[in-house]
Specification:
Chain lengths: ~325, ~200
């Protein structure tokens, strides 16, 4: 048994997870608690701000607001922890850039001083995947596996900003074909499939979804076509914005590109901690997998019922 | 030089069209793109270029030669910032970051899409979130949170009005609000001018 350490993080929520896909937030909280990691709240945190839009408008504003968010974690002495590739991109790029460019840090602190804050840069922003894979480690996770799938075919979607830019990420410069997510998915007994253009962007980021939805939907269409051709039961991702694009995006692709896709897409999209949580034996209610409401027009837009049937059949 | 060479192989010299813009490129650190050898690796790996007219190499080339049409076209806004061009550039140019800087210059010159302006000015500045869940119009998202055992609003700026004010005062301090006002003004002026030209040409 690998020894538990005193892991403490500041839960940086961002926007899409808490405000549109709360099942993702619920599953992250449940899994980290189960693994004995403490998640402290980052009270008053804002949008990261999004690297594709707000950084594209005004880099200094992006940097100042990102630094403000990091200072909230610094004040309580923890690393900001995010479950979103976009927030990870912002917080980590801002952190690395300010370390390498003291003039940026100085500029940022001049503005922060006006609201009584100081940015130090002594708390490394982390992705939940980084915390699970690098801080806790595969052996620690393996020790917690209680149930395994017998036959579950998974299309893993990494997304972009968790691995790139690789010089600002903790994966040793690896960016073409990393395996850390596949390894974690396969801990659950599932099979991570090889599929064409596995590392293709979902199409949501970089302000593209806001600019021209049809183009975003075409990225998703290509991705979904490759995933369907590989025979995947589900998609596993680690970013709420990719998650939105691959879930809601299926409806959009089914509408906009109905003439070229044949059958409509209906592949359940599941967040990493939802899958891991099941294998750890956590109640599906706590993992945001069970619908307890009558609300219309809310996610998941693609039914996850086929996945829940697999869970019932295989996890006993 | 033979007559045929002169006749068929024209040498085109692209001079910086707008020196003010060129200076901005240099100020923004865009001089790194001088190392570009126009190999097209960026375009080759670009997932947006597969389905749109956006050509990364071409955008970089235009920036390098001071061709301001790169700021006007929607193309630079079709980059999904996947960072393949950044990773694969044989000259180590941080291509994606250059595209982001080009967008900064475009916004400064009044080239911003309405959807982007609305997101920045009316959503992010007002609420502190890019995708908010507060207010009566977002009741369903609060209910959705509660159905998964979470409090109706996250402990972010949504639970801290003073934090929204802090974010706003920082955005004012760093020049964001002024930038947004300017870009809106420039955009409206341009639209008026275009409208007038259109009317003139149809007379």
């Amino acid at each position: 048994m690998i020894e538990k350490k005193n892991w403490r993080y500041g839960m940086f929520l961002g926007c899409v997870a808490p405000n549109r896909y709360p099942m993702i937030e619920a599953s992250i909280r449940a899994v980290f608690e189960h693994l004995g990691a403490e998640l402290l709240e980052l009270e008053g945190a804002s949008c990261c701000p999004a690297p594709g839009v707000f950084r594209a408008f005004h880099i200094p504003s992006w940097l100042v607001i990102a630094a403000r968010n990091i200072t909230i974690a610094e004040q309580i002495g923890v690393s900001p922890l995010t479950g979103c590739n976009g927030c990870y991109g912002t917080l980590r790029d801002a952190w690395v850039e300010m370390e390498h460019e003291p003039s940026l840090k100085k500029m940022v602190n001049e503005h922060l001083a006006k609201v009584g804050r100081v940015y130090k840069g002594n708390r490394e922003p982390k992705h939940i995947v980084q915390a699970l894979y690098l801080d806790m480690g595969m052996d620690y996770l393996r020790d917690h596996i209680k149930y395994t799938f017998k036959d579950l075919k998974v299309a893993v979607h990494y997304g972009c900003h968790i691995i790139k830019p690789s010089d600002k990420r903790p994966w040793g410069g690896q960016y073409e074909c990393p395996t850390f997510l596949d390894e974690m998915v396969e801990l659950t007994g599932a099979k991570s499939l090889d599929y064409k253009d596995k590392f293709l962007c979902c199409g949501a980021g970089g302000a593209v979804r806001t600019a021209v939805k049809e183009i975003s939907a075409d990225f998703s269409r290509e991705k979904l076509e490759n995933i369907r051709n590989a025979g995947a039961d589900i998609i596993i991702d680690v970013c709420p914005f990719c998650h939105l694009q691959l879930d809601l995006g299926q409806l959009e692709a089914n509408g906009i590109y109905k003439d070229i896709i044949g059958e409509p897409y209906k592949i359940p999209v599941i967040y990493l901690t939802q899958l891991l949580g099941l294998a750890f034996g956590i109640d599906p209610n706590q993992l945001g997998l069970v619908k307890n409401h009558q609300l219309a027009g809310v996610p998941p837009f693609i039914s996850i019922e086929p996945f829940l049937n697999i869970v019932k059949e295989q996890l006993d | 030089m033979s007559e045929n060479v002169k006749k068929y192989i024209k040498r085109q010299v692209i001079k910086p069209i707008n020196s003010k813009i060129s200076e901005k490129f240099v100020d923004a650190g865009l001089e790194k793109i001088r190392a570009c050898i126009n190999c097209g690796t960026c375009t080759g790996g670009c997932p947006s270029g597969r389905r749109t007219a956006y050509r990364t190499r071409s955008a970089i080339r235009k920036a390098l030669t001071g061709d301001t049409s790169v700021l006007e076209d929607i193309d630079i806004w079709l980059c999904s910032t996947c960072y393949y061009c950044y990773e694969r550039c044989p000259r180590d140019i941080p291509v994606t970051d250059m595209i982001i800087k080009l967008r900064n210059i475009a916004v400064e010159e009044g080239y911003i899409l309405d959807a982007h302006f609305g997101l920045a000015n009316n959503v992010f500045f007002i609420t502190g979130h890019g995708v908010p869940a507060n207010g009566e119009e977002n009741k369903k998202w609060q209910d959705l949170r509660e159905s998964y055992g979470l409090p109706p609003l996250p402990p972010t700026v949504h639970c801290h009005p003073e934090a929204v004010e802090e974010v706003q005062s920082l955005l004012k301090s760093v020049g964001f609000t002024e930038l947004m006002e300017n870009t809106k003004k420039l955009k409206e002026e341009r639209a008026k001018k275009e409208q007038a030209e259109k009317e003139e040409s149809t007379k």
